[in-house]
Amino acid sequence: MAIDLKRTFSTQTLTRPLAAGSAVQQEGIVLVHRLEDGIEKVALVDVVAATDVPVGFSKTADSLPSRTSAVEVVTVPAAPTSLVADLRRQNLVVGKVRAVDSNGVVLLIDPVFAGVPAAGSVKVDHPTGRVKFDAAQAGLDVKFTYLYDLTMIQAEQIFGQRFVNNWGLHATFGVIEVGHGHCELYTDQYDASVDWSVAVPQLGDKGQIVAAGLGPVLNATVISVPSVDSALLGLRIQFG
């Protein structure tokens, strides 16, 4: 479950056919309207357009997510020890990492791990989750918010299996349940590099919640920002 089942709800649940070429594995992503053969279907689009019309969020209890979010705080080792630390997760998604130190400084993410970090930056080795800090950060706490890709074993360990003998039913039958109407959605499918305390939610590629791009602005308000206690983004959102 890539959504918080205890806090996520919708006033309506629609059952809709999937548009041609759409395969949905993640829960809590935004699907858009398509009209095929005179019938409304829903699509997961790789590249969203301003004309796309959001229908609702995916509810897929018959699959395991391949990507999720995390928030953790790292205390930068003080000199003379190494300025290198390891995040708890590996396979971080490039461009979906945010780091803020305990002085409130947003650190530039440098994806090239070799060398010494420039002032105000942190080097991130995305495959291993290893991070390297500038000496000025020594002794500070740095909060990382990030998305990372899951192995099948990790997905089972973190999310368990809510399904029994119904793996991939939405793909087999070509239909999916969609949360619609007035919703409160707590999802891990968002751009983790964004400061969600000030950003305006927008529909992004692959159904994610973003704050910039070509997709339409959502009729949504942020009601909970990702934190160490909960890495999910909370939205009050109206579909339809």
Task: Write structural notes for this entry.
By secondary structure, the chain is mainly beta. It has two domains: 9-66 and 152-239, Beta Barrel (Virus Head Decoration Protein, Chain: A), CATH 2.40.300; 68-149, no CATH class. It is 5% helix and 42% strand. The chain has helices spanning 152-159, 169-173; strands at 9-17, 30-36, 39-43, 54-59, 67-75, 84-86, 92-101, 106-110, 121-125, 130-133, 141-149, 175-187, 202-203, 209-210, 220-224, 233-239. Strands 1, 2, 3, 4, 12, 15 and 16 form a seven-stranded antiparallel beta sheet that branches. It has a seven-stranded mixed beta sheet with strand order 5-11-7-8-9-10-6, with no helix packed on it. It has a two-stranded antiparallel sheet with strand order 13-14. Strand 15 (220-224) and strand 16 (233-239) form a beta hairpin. The chain is elongated and about 65 Å long. The two termini are 24 Å apart. The mean pLDDT is 90.
